[in-house]
């Protein structure tokens, strides 16, 4: 899926005006929000991921999670006490837990084009064909630390997500482990997310750079 900014109409017909609960600290978000959150280690990730997914399942939303395959079963077990009908959510495909080796790093490489096509298929189908009012996705971004072709395009991809996010009623949460990512990467991560989750608050990100501007700088190394 190619998403040049000139072809994206922000706030298109699929968008909803209704705010939705994040599941953390009473925070509410608008469809189309793209947020980054920082954590320390697996326990810190689950403190964010579990309530975020549980709230989406509780309110009848489609939930898409992208994690290391080694963490899939552990995540489901941590989620189980918070979601009474978890097995039903999985079998009905209200909840998808994807292995990032078969999504972000399919065929041993990262392709922005293929990943946007994947998101279009799953998010688009959820709200267009399956009748879900909203899709909420959560991506553990440690896949970008793998030694694979294309992973250096992480922040260009994150910038382009801001063009994809308004196309559907969706919330996109990107999770970064501060124990694993360098400061240089975190700086670019901040530039590509309009909102940041800090503790029990979501703030408008003062470091955010609009996609066209960020990508122009990115291409020229600025």
| Adjacency order of strands in the biggest sheet | 5-4-6-7-3-8-9
Helical run tally: 7
Which range best describes the helical content: under 10%, 10-25%, 25-40%, 40-55%, 55-70% or over 70%? 25-40%
Largest sheet: 7 strands, mixed
The first-to-last residue Cα distance is: 26 Å
Task: Give the H and E element order.
Answer: EEEHEHHEHEHEHEEH
Question: Count of DSSP E strands?
Answer: 9
Rg (C-alpha, Å)? 16 Å
Shape: globular
Spans of at least 5 consecutive residues with low confidence? 4-16
Average pLDDT, to the nearest integer? Answer: 90
Share in β-strands: 15-25%
- Alpha-beta classification: alpha/beta
What distinguishing features does this structure have?
222 residues; 7-stranded mixed β-sheet; single chain; two-stranded antiparallel sheet; alpha/beta
Give the structure's gist in a few sentences.
By secondary structure, this protein is α/β, with parallel strands linked by helices. Helices cover 36% and strands 19% of the residues. It starts with 19 loop residues before the first strand and ends with a helix.
Folded structure, characterized:
This protein is α/β, with parallel strands linked by helices. Helix content is 36%, strand content 19%. It contains 7 helices and 9 strands. The strands form 2 sheets. It has a 7-stranded mixed sheet, sandwiched between helices. Helix 5 (154-164) runs antiparallel to helix 7 (211-220). The radius of gyration is 16 Å and the shape is globular. It starts with 19 loop residues before the first strand and ends with a helix.
